[in-house]
Every structure is written in C-alpha cells, then in structure tokens.
Amino acid sequence: MSTDPITPELVRQVFKGRIFSVAVERITLPHGHRLDAEVIRHPPSVVLVPMDADGHVILIRQYRHAVGRWLWELPAGSTDPGEDERVAAARECQEEIGLIPTELTRLGAFFPTPGYCDEEMIFFLATGLRAPGPADPAAHADPDEHIEPRAFTLDEARRLIEDGGIADMKTVTGLALAARPRG
Predict the structure, then answer these.
(1) pTM above 0.90, yes or no
(2) Nearest to 76 by CA among 102, 117, 115, 42
(3) Distance between CA 163 and CA 172 in Å, rounded?
(4) Dist CA 127 CA 116 (whole Å)
(5) pLDDT of residue 45
C-alpha cells in the first residue's frame, strides 16, 4: 500500500470566491491510472464548543441558504491566511457569541468531506467565557450572517439532534467530542 504523496497538476481553475475555490486537477494514482479530480480548496476552519460556567453549551441559530433552513450550530469560521488556529478560535467565539474564551482545549481535527474538499475543521472546547473588556479587540460579525446565540444543556442539545433542529455534522461531531472523557 503506497503512502507516497500524489502531486496534482492544475488543469484549470473553475471558480475563485472569497471563501473557497474550485479546481480541476490531474493526478496519477500509484497503479498508473490518471484522472481529473474536481476539488474544492478551502482554508482550515475552527469549530467552537463554548461551555459556560454552568456547563451549558452555547449554540447559534442561523439561516443556511444551501439547505434552505434555520439551523442550530456550534460557532465556527474559517481561518484567515497565516492566522494561528487558536487566535482564529478566540476571534470566532467573540464574533459569534460575544464572549471571549480564557481557555481553549483542542479536541481534534477532521476533514468533513475529503472526497472533494480539503477543508480541515479544528475543534476546540472554549471555557472560561467572559465578556470583552476595553483592552480587547472589537469583534465584527460577518455582514452575511444573522446569528442568534442561546445556551442549552447537553441533554437539550441531544434532543435537538434527535428532533432535527441540529442537522449540521460539525455540530454533532463537536458535541460528541466535548462529551467524551478527557484526562
């Protein structure tokens, strides 16, 4: 079984947007078969599991046009070019729920759709949440987002999963990661 990296050759860039790009790349597999692969190139993203002092998880409700629904989700966002993942996590937490974590615990990193997208989602447990002070940088919500944060018990979040209110895989994964014993 080969584990050598396969070097792609760019055939054409199909689309370049502000968040991701789409390319067709030619690759040669170890057994010699050549194929053109359609790939979405997306920067790494951070996913937060913000837990307040009472053990509630803070979810956000937002409209997701691609699926035509309002969903409860964990706060998340893309990293900026060259941005440290922890800096991105703290920034996204403040932008989306208005609170700054004093502690970030990395829970893992996963590729949600590796068949066609290179996005890596990096999960953090965010605790020690505090309101921003005068010395903290100002947070600015993205103009294309309308976000409603709300705290839930973990049991309430599980019921939302069962009832379809949480239909977002990153949120299901993040809640499962946060629920596992650490030590």
Answers:
(1) yes
(2) 42
(3) 13
(4) 33
(5) 98
